[in-house]
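thought: fold this chain, then report.
action: predict
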Amino acid sequence: MESWLLGSPYPGIVLWLILYVSDYYTTLAIVRAFRKIEAIKFENGMELTPQFRKDVEGQARVSGRHIAFLILTSLAIPLFWYLSVWILGWTWLYSFLLGFFILMEVVVHLRHFRNWYTARVYLRERGLSGNITYSERFSYLASAFEFYLFAILFVLFFLLTFNPFFLGGTVSCLRMGLGHDGLARKIEPQAAPPLSQNADPSSG
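observation:
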């Protein structure tokens, strides 16, 4: 990784462009697929980033917010490479930044693949009955927990390799987890429905 990813800013920029653009359009495709699943609904939609929710739920093929953020981050990567590697000689700092951006998108894509497979299996075989509605608060809490798990995974990789790339991924996942936790806490929890008379509370 040291020879090709850190020696120049261009590999990092290319990776980031591919992952970030793929993230947006994969999200659009998954939202379309889940709209065909009658058994699963999401309060206020699947998109958890408030700034992009309108564009994603509206299936905007071109998102001004997405493009603006893509341009800003794509300019930040070479600037940070120049400051940390070329001027300071701190390749570890640039490696940390790449891990912060790229590993976060890797986690997001893994979640996309899980959702894609769920939709694919349902549309092929069904297998779900009844109706499930994910409240917005529940979605944020579940998402935060997933990011915390990946933060633990990346910090273990860092402890095994002492590679700051994985430390960047750890910090990024912690940031996302705390952010979604914070959004969940702004939403009042819904009252739990009463247990069914046929349910056995001791059954687990």
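thought: worth noting. The two ends are 47 Å apart (CA to CA).
final: tokens above.
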